Amino acid sequence: MSTQGGSFRLFRLAGVDVFLHWSWFLVAIYEVQVWRSMFSSPLWAVLLYLGLFTFVTMHEFGHALACRQVGGQANRIVLWPLGGIAFVSPPPRAGAMLWSIAAGPLVNLLLVPILSFILHTAGNAGWVNTNPDAYLVLSWLWRINLGLLLFNLLPIYPLDGGQILRAVLWFPLGQIRSLFIATAVGFAGGGALALVAIWQRSIWIGFMAFFLLSQAGLGWRQAQYLKKEAAEVSIPPDDAHLAEKKTVL
After folding, report:
1. Per-residue pLDDT tens digits for 55-66
2. Same domain, yes or no, for 141 and 199?
3. Residue 135 in contact with residue 123, Cβ under 8 Å?
């Protein structure tokens, strides 16, 4: 079995290896225990959790395939308790970056009408009374997908919204200054989330805030490195075409 950094490979599709981190199972057990009270059997809670990560996997494949479409590299996805990470390296162009990042949320956006139709059809078929567990799973999956879409579009680097902001700013400001601005906004957003964690006394939200702040810090240091490299070769920072390793949530 292929392993990497505490993760093991689940499958390979379209040249992309999908890995699952061991910590996923710990959170899965906890979430299933929390959700099982909503259903007549814990198997429905398991199905709901698997459905959540099916959406996450589809979202990450959106990033990976879009990156390849514009000539970039993408060969690995890692699933872990906070969602998924697609390791992609798009060409150092604003348009290529924008499409590679936006394709992930676009998958969730396309799922909204599909899931709405399925939920509506199930409701008309009387599943609320005849198959209440199945209908509840569908209802939650609809809400989860919408939640994934909206959360990922928050302009907090390195979330998709933050990286979309960076790509849009890249057009008028250039590669490096856009990264500085996006990561600065990411620091502000992560800090706000940390305050929410303190207010709500939520370890989970606090962990998410810590992750976002640490990733924003990495992005800031990357921008400093790119600026330094551009200065060393005596070219304007905004014209520096240096490959960046992108980690997309």
Report:
1. 999 999 999 999
2. no
3. yes
